[in-house]
Amino acid sequence: MLVDLHCHTLPLSACSALDPLELARLAAERGLGGICLTEHDRAWDADALDALRRAAPIAVFSAAELTTDLGHVLAFGLPAAAFSAEARELAAAAERHGALLYLAHPARDGLLRVTRETVEYFVSVEAANGSDSRLQNIAAAGLAKGFRLPGIGGSDAHTAAEVGRAATRFAAAVSSDGDLLDALRAGAYEAVLLDS
Ligand SMILES: [Zn+2]
Ligand SMILES: [Zn+2]
């Protein structure tokens, strides 16, 4: 099952031009089985998320992309109250909540800000990002090899054309945020770049 683990929608990500339902429909058309909403530093309201899930043709998961001192971090299973701009605080919260942190598009800034100590905050990196160049994705996939879990993949879509350019292929079907977290923890997935 292919799930896009990195998507931005309006209005929570002001930089995006994508309506959430449009995103889900486009992703379905392009062969994905699920999308994960990762708005910048914002969590979806539970009722709005329920309504979107009822209307969407594919599974909809919820996570976040947090802006931190070590770069952008994709956080899965972290409650909004624990969001922080300090990676050290995020790591402590992730530990408490059993959440997973991945460094997003790690080759984009050209310089990794993680050190020997802070690299421990992350279970892995985003190894395939649909908005990054081929070279950046090769570098990111190489970085992922140094972590205990495989790298994840996502489109980082902000517009319709970008939907479905990268995803994460899960070995088994996932249907809830809990399933997604379990599958990530088990490492039963791989990052994929897709032609679209
Ligand atoms: Zn980012
Ligand atoms: Zn993003």
TrEMBL record:
Q: Which domain of life is it from?
A: Bacteria
User: Domain named Polymerase/histidinol phosphatase N-terminal: which ranges?
Assistant: 3-70
UniProt xrefs under SUPFAM superfamilies: PHP domain-like (SSF89550)
Signal peptide interval: none
Q: What is this protein called?
A: PHP domain-containing protein
Species source reads Tepidiforma flava
